[in-house]
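Entry 14. Structure prediction run on the chain below.
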Amino acid sequence: MKKFLSMAQILLLSTLFVMQSAQAEEDKAIATIKASIESLGLRDQPEKITKSAVPGLYEVVVGQYVLYVSADGKYMLQGDLYDVQRRLNLTDEIRAVRRVKAMKELNGDSMIVFSPQSGKAKYTITAFTDIDCGYCRKLHNEMKDYNDLGIEIRYVSYPRAGLNSPSYEKAVAVWCAVDRNKAMSTAKAGASLEELKQTEQVKDESCKDPIKQHMKVASLVGVTGTPTLVMDDGTILPGYLPAQRLLQALQENSKAQ
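Output returned:
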């Protein structure tokens, strides 16, 4: 019995030694990778470094990007990693988690929301929109179709031309209007900034708008064009979708969860 206990203790100590060695090796790799990434002088620093599904490669989250780096920090890949057997985009799963986190910086009070008349939405979608974007206007022109199918559209502004551009100023004017939903429809119909201010009772310059915050979140989410549609789980649908196709995408996404 004593011999058995002694052997058990030896096995336990051996296991602990192996685990500690593996952890030490992983810690060393993470420190090396962190230093390697920081040496590139990127705007954002590594937020998370973990082992990837591929032996020898580490998954590194830097800002809105997911990178794959060798343990010695000498080699780096940027792209999507797929699990062929499960037919899953592993990289996009990471991005989706980050999108959900970024979207939590927003709330209903900072969006312009178009809901079904019943007030009961079956599905919600967040749309990053540019007032002067052609397909954004097409989407808005079909708002009744989306709402009739029980889809709530929550607008977040993303003026592609940047700060202080005409599109940006229109987004601010829409937000500062007494009736934001009506002002959004007027703007999407092609009204100029001057027409918006004249017809939509836009408040004075003391109005505080969330457009800069919207643009910051868009950057974190990885928005590069409009419209960009984001589901509640962080899944992105890039571009305009007709009402029936959007409903189908939302239904399929709901079943997959």
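The chain has two domains: 19-90, 108-256.
Filed with the rest of this week's runs.
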